[in-house]
Amino acid sequence: AQKITQTQPGMFVQEKEAVTLDCTYDTSDPSYGLFWYKQPSSGEMIFLIYQGSYDQQNATEGRYSLNFQKARKSANLVISASQLGDSAMYFCAMREGRVGQFYFGTGTSLTVIP
Amino acid sequence: DSGVTQTPKHLITATGQRVTLRCSPRSGDLSVYWYQQSLDQGLQFLIQYYNGEERAKGNILERFSAQQFPDLHSELNLSSLELGDSALYFCASSGSESNEKLFFGSGTQLSVL
Fold first, then answer.
1. CB-based contacts of A70, cutoff 8 Å, min separation 6
2. Are the Cβ atoms of B104 and A100 closer than 8 angstroms?
3. Which has fewest Cβ within 10 Å: A73, A90, B55, B101?
4. Are B45 and B31 in contact (CB under 8 A)?
5. Closest CB to B42 among A52, A98, A104
6. Handedness of CA A96, A99, A101, A105 (dihedral sign)
7. β-strand pairing of B108-112 with B103-104
8. How is residue A85 annotated by DSSP?
């Protein structure tokens, strides 16, 4: 089974609108971390946001928030007030336990339309 | 700046050749990871080292090998190169705790002609 599933290969959003990028995960480890990364066309991987499995509240970082639904094993990224610079590939990732490897989804390509 | 240094940034070589990609992790990070990203593809996990020891192995071809040295820098060796090996190769490092994120280098763009 896939550890991380991103079911949206491509998404479009109007500038200034909010958008949700889906991510579901699969693990039996009670301790894990969930991460979102952004990869613009320039190629670098940029960390956006982190959510721990024991965190009670959803993580937020500026315009980014993580909608963490533990029972459903989902960790959706919400981008509010989309900007043209948000056009990029977005990857969801999970790390199990300590010193574990990171599992990445296949990514979602987001295009922000002016 | 992530603190992870990858060299070289670009590499152009011919089929059948061998190349070495180098990575210096962020100061204090014991784990080093290698990923391959082909055109329009996601990140393919190749291998992870922790404090000099191989920790996890992904879809790494037998033609590829890696190691982590006592000073924690790592090298990825790619041999008998094929056209399909052309890709962006990322090195990344992290700390040991589950809440520590992955810091990526800027990548090495390998072109096999």
1. A53
2. no
3. A73
4. no
5. A104
6. positive
7. unpaired
8. G
